[in-house]
Design brief:
The protein has one helix at about 50-55; strands at about 10-15, 25-30. About 10% of the residues lie in helices and about 20% in strands. It is α+β, with helices and mostly antiparallel strands. It has 1 helix and 2 strands; from the N terminus they run ββα. The protein has a domain at about 10-30 and about 45-65.
Length: about 70
């Protein structure tokens, strides 16, 4: 049973202060391993912490100002 090797990965992007329904999902190329001490890990699932949603929404602007 052969598996197709993926060439892209999904990434969550937040370009400005916004609510979670405005986050963008991008398809990016999978990084290449270029040194013998590098490792590529396949992530099956990930989560977003409630504090991260508040920071992305702008509720912590004084602590994390926009760049």
């Amino acid at each position: 049973m052969a598996q197709d090797k993926a060439t892209t990965m999904r990434s969550l992007a937040i370009e400005k202060y916004c609510k979670p329904d405005e986050y963008k999902i991008l398809d990016l190329p999978i990084p290449k391993i270029s040194a013998p001490d590098e490792l590529l890990i396949k992530v099956h699932a990930a989560s977003i912490n409630p504090i991260d949603v508040k920071v992305a929404d702008g509720q912590a602007k004084l602590a994390f100002p926009a760049r």
